[in-house]
Each structure stands twice: as C-alpha cells, then as structure tokens.
Amino acid sequence: MKHSVAASLATLAATAIARSNPHQCAALATDTQLQGKVLLPNTAAYNAEVDTYYSANAAQHAWCMVLPESTADVQATVKILAKDQCPFGIKAGGHSAWKGSNSIANGVTVDFGYMNTTSYNPDTGIASIQPGARWGSVYEFVDPYNVTVVGARTSVVGVGGFTTGGGYSFHSNSHGFACDNVVNWEIVLADSSVVNANASTNPDLWKAQKGGSGNLGFVTRIDQQTVEGTQLWGGFTSYNLSETDNVFNAYLDFVENTQENSPDQTIIALYYDYTGFSIRSILTNNEGIANAPAFDGFLALPNISSTLTVGPEAEIIPQFTGPTPLGLYANWFTGMATNSFEALSIINKLHPEYVAKMVAAAPTSNFSTLIEFQPVTNTMVQNSDKRGGNILGLEPIVADGPVLMWLVALTVDTEENQAVILPIAHEFVAAINQNLQEAGRFVNWAYLNYAWGNEKPYSHYGQANLDLLTAVSYKYDPNGVFQKLRQTGFKFS
Ligand SMILES: Cc1cc2nc3c(=O)[nH]c(=O)nc-3n(C[C@H](O)[C@H](O)[C@H](O)COP(=O)(O)OP(=O)(O)OC[C@H]3O[C@@H](n4cnc5c(N)ncnc54)[C@H](O)[C@@H]3O)c2cc1C
Q1: Is the Cβ atom of 142 under 6 angstroms away from ligand 1?
Q2: Ligand 1 near 164 CB (within 6 A)
C-alpha cells in the first residue's frame, strides 16, 4: 500500500514537471544558440520577467520563456517552435492589458525584453530600434543628435507592440502613425529565414506589417525615419467639473480646425478614483511652441492646475508617463464615434452611472477609470498614405471629417475586485456602443493597440486590407505558424 502511494505521488510529480516544462522547453534550453536564454518556472529570473508585465491580467506563467538576444536567436527559436508544433506567445514591452495579449499559459512565451537597443545613422536620419526597447530609452538615445521619433506618449511602452499595431504619437497629425515612419522591418519568418521589408524589397510585407501586429513573423528590427528637433511643449491641465461642456466644445473646435501637418494635438480625459471625478486635457505642440493659437479655446478656460511646459521629448514624455505601477489589473477597451458634443455627452453621462455600479459591487476596491478622447484626423491619415499607407483602413472613416476615438481604461487593485468589476466594465462598453448607435453617432472602427481581446480590430479595417493581410500571410507563412501556433494578440483569421 505504502509503495503504491509513493509510486502514485512520483507519477503525479513527474506529470506536473512534464506539464510545467514540456519537451519543447528542453529542446529550446539545450539548443546551442539559445543556451542561457531560456527561463524555466520557479526560478528567480523567470519570476522577475513575469513581474515586468504592465497588467496583472496579462502576466501568464508560460511553460518557459525564451529571451532572444539577437536575430540569430530568434531564428533558432522559431525553428524549434515550428518543428515541434509548439504553441507560443509574443511579448515586447508587455503593455497590452488583456489576458492572452502577450503571454501564454500553455506554451512558450517569446519575450523580446533583452532585444532593446537603438542605433542611429546621422547620414540617413534612420533610427534602428529593437522591438523590446521602451520608447523612453529611444527618445534618450536619439536626443543628442537633435532628432526624435514618432513613438509613444508614455516612456514605458514597448516599441514592438506599439509600432506593429499602428502607434498614435504626439507627431501623428504631422507624420501619421509610428508604423508609417518605418522605412524597413527586419522580420524572422516562420521558416526561420530573415527578410527585410521596405518600399522596394518585399513591399507587400512592408505594408501589411504596418498594423499587422504578430500575424506575419517575428519583427526583430524596426528602422524608423526620425523627425528633426526634440522640443515638445505640453502638459496636463485640470479643470473644474463645471467646465466640462466648455472643455468638450474647446476639444471639438480644436479637432474641426486641425490644419494639415499640424504640430498641435490634444487629448481630453475623464477620470475617476476614490477621490472623485475629474476632467483634464493634454495639449501638445511638437515644435516646442508655447500657447499656439490652435489652443486658444482651451487656454481661455479657468483651470485648477496646469503642468504646461517646454523641453526635449526625452524629458517631457517621462513627465507625462508619471507613475504607471506594474502588477495592477489594467483593462482597456476602445471604440469610435462622430466628432460631436452628443457623443462626448453620452459617454460622460454613462461614466458615473457605471462607476456607481462598480462601487456598489466592490465597495472596498481602490479602482480607477480613465476615459480618453482623442481624434483621428484627416491629416493623420493623409500622412499615413503619403508614406506608403498602412492596413488600418482609416481612409473611409475620416472621409466625412475627423472622428472621435474613445478609450476606457479600468485599473483594479486585486484579482477578487477585478472579478466583480470587469463584468460591469463590459456592460459600460456595451452601453456606450448601444447609446452611440441609437443616437446615430457610432463609427464602426476599433484601434488594435487599445482593444480588449474580444474586439476583433481586423474586422473593422476594411476588406481590401484584410485581403492584403491574408495574402501576405499565405505568401510568407504558408503553413500558418503565426495563425495556428501563435496564441497571443489579434489574428486576422
Ligand atoms: C501606459 C500606456 C500608454 C500607452 N500609450 C499609447 C500611445 O501613446 N499610443 C498608442 O498608440 N498606444 C499606446 N498604448 C497602447 C500600446 O500601443 C499597446 O499596449 C502596445 O501593444 C504596447 O506595445 P508593447 O511592445 O508593450 O506590446 P506587448 O504587449 O509586448 O505586445 C503586444 C502584441 O504586439 C505584437 N508584437 C510585439 N512585439 C512583436 C514582435 N517583435 N514581432 C511581432 N509582433 C510583435 C504581438 O502580437 C503581441 O502580442 C499605451 C499603453 C499603455 C499601457
């Protein structure tokens, strides 16, 4: 009897090890190219990597993680993953929030965290950036050359996910999305070959990767055209809630009057935490010009506080970033509406109703809701097209004028509170869409980089773009490795 109990325990233990560390991890860990680059569970290095995820939802425990240090390492990795039919996930900066966006529980996470360097060629003005870099490090690296990049508006965000998903920047009115400024992608394909994709070599792959996220291969280097000058004027301005309608009107006027290639941009945001509700704007000018006339409507309003200042992006963008604590339960949802007072008012009215439901469901939770409104303008889309175009499908969306992109970001303190608050956030999002539809203010588009796992961004990007993405996937990944084995992020299929 004793013997059989011991035997069963041994079998259970062996099964547990096999489950947590299957043969694919052994193949990766013993590959000569990858030695020392595979992290196994229950090690300090593995646990430290799990802690680098922005949202606790996303930080799943993979069978093992591969942290490539070079393109050759990525080639060795994909060879084993494809041969062994191993499910895998892709992580760069780890800032996508939903479970399954960038890590995998039953498979191997390929984590680009160690491929994080930037180089710059002053002759061409091109910055070559590895996908695991954070934007803050890129701004700092190129700053001494008096150039900047079309990157994220917070310094902690990763280059890989941001750029392959689009990338809305402080330079978007004047330069389009981050992906539009990529003059060359270096990509490791499913067959482990390395290709460059640019306007003359593999141009179909170049375009499809501008929004293609993880559908086509592992992006190992991003060559981005830089922008001259580093100075950014901008900051947060907080207003009394009684000014809400005036802030909305200032925003709508600003957006309607956006000039071609404008250096000026704005975001307005509604916020709730345990201290109450608030409203603020983020005004920026990417030429470092203070108080440009486009902001007159905002600047005329009385404010509670303002951090507007001018300085190099390498210094100003970390100030915008503020504390973005890791390990909380962050959840992002997005959608689109007409650029209208009615659309803003609908969301503003629903916000406190659903916050009240959240408070009632989890009275002790320290949660916050942030609702950001930012425009997609005609000049942004023209700047995308001028640079070769992307697959976001925004041309018909802005055909009648600029539109309003909304983002709901819910951040919850604990898993238990998240379990009761998240369903209410889903109801809130459904109510936003329903009310916008009933008012004739709904626009059928969702931005991949802000979308929750169920939002299917590719279904909004238009048939021609979907056809391109599908054709490029069949051409460069005929066995569908990045459709079948890749389990993270959004698939077009
Ligand atoms: C605080 C904060 C601020 C943000 N600010 C902005 C902003 O200003 N503008 C904006 O547009 N978005 C912004 N975002 C959203 C952001 O663009 C996305 O979360 C983006 O995915 C983050 O990039 P990442 O490298 O951290 O992605 P990860 O979460 O690591 O990866 C997301 C997905 O990207 C794909 N991917 C990543 N690396 C590669 C690669 N090497 N090859 C192929 N596919 C890859 C994969 O499909 C992966 O599943 C912000 C997010 C946060 C949390």
Answers
A1: no
A2: yes
